Amino acid sequence: MALRFALMIDPLAADETNSELRSTFTAVDPAAPALTVGELSTQRGDGIFESIGVVDGHPQEVEAHLDRLAHSAELCDLPAPHIDQWREAVAIAAAECGPGEGVVKLILSRGVEHGPTPTAWATAASAADFTAVRRDGIRVVTLDRGYAIDAPARAPWLLLGAKTLSYAVNMAALREAHRRDADDAVFLSSDGFVLEAPTASLILRRGDTFVTPAPNGGILHGTTQLSLFDHLAARGFETGYETIPVDELRGADAAWLVSSVRLAAPVREIDGVAVDVDPEFTASLNDYLLSPRD
Ligand code: PLP
Fold first, then answer.
1. For the chain, N or C: smaller number of CB within 10 Å?
2. Whose CA is nearest to atom 12 of ligand 1?
3. Taking a C-beta distance cutoff of 8 angstroms, is the pair 50, 65 a contact?
């Protein structure tokens, strides 16, 4: 996923009196160095991000991503993002993604050690081709995340509901899944409830009802899941948030991992046991996800 474009954002230069938001951006060469060695995002992963899917230049679900960016900032005690400024940055970056599917990434870092300001930037890239995975599905393994379902309430400093830059654990879980001959992982709480995947939300089907783990269990509230639930409700299906024991994952009629760039990947195996995949239904979900969404 080669970067096509990068925009440095001055988060403190945007305020109610600044109508020239574009003057707070500086386009930089995405292949050239742009951060200082004192950056806390690189030293400590101390910052937050969003990855926004782009289809033929249209950024998907921008407001939901900006809401989550603001929520992550609040959880991390970062300055509240100036939403108009970020919306403008998304529009500029999305226009640079090129034809087909792309991804705009937004990053807000605590900034430079001992420095006065946070650091922020946006990038644009073309997306990998996920056609096969959307059609053929993925094999997942369940992995213990090591926290009980009530950990976020007891220990908010774990920042479990924030989309922080500290994804080393998520990447380690993916490597473990690959070691176990699977494509992806589903995290479980230490007390046996289903949470999310390292980079995606989980949706289960039970008859005509679709459920997803409640976002208060220390998981991200996925923008793709939110959008799909609206779509499913409009098609007459029931949707809901639940605390889901692992047995219900194994007993589901169907399951998907959903996320902004890969979109809906049907699960075809859980811990080595085959799961039914409905290719036509999954294709209808991905058709919806690929249509312009606001
Ligand atoms: N959960 C985690 C941990 C993620 O990293 C992501 C996306 O990257 C998601 C869920 C899905 O979120 P979205 O649908 O907004 O991409």
1. C
2. 222
3. yes
Whether 107 and 121 have beta carbons less than 8 Å apart is answered as: yes
Domain boundary among 68, 98, 126: 126
For 26-50, how does the pLDDT look when each residue is reduced to its tens digit (9 = 90+)? Answer: 999 999 999 999 999 999 999 999 9
Whole-model pTM above 0.85?
yes
CATH number of the domain encompassing residue 64: 3.30.470.10
Ligand 1 atom closest to Cα of residue 201: 10
List the beta bridge partners of residue 126: 102
- Identify the residue whose tokens are 């890239």: 125
Task: Look up residue 171 and give its amino acid.
Answer: M
* DSSP conformation class of 239: E
CA–CA dist 38, 145 (Å, integer): 31
Tell me the CA–centroid distance for residue 17 and ligand 1, in Å: 34
Q: Could you tell me if residue 294 is inside a domain?
A: no
Q: Are residues 69 and 105 in the same domain?
A: yes
Nearest-atom number in ligand 1 for the CA of 225 is 14
65-98 tens-digit pLDDT:
999 999 999 999 999 999 999 999 999 999 999 9
CB neighbours of residue 58 within 10 Å: 16
Backbone angles phi, psi at 87, to 5 degrees: -60, -40
How far the first Cα of the chain sits from its last, in Å, is 24
Give 105 Cα–ligand 1 centroid separation in angstroms.
13
| Integer Cα distance of 159 and 81 in angstroms | 18
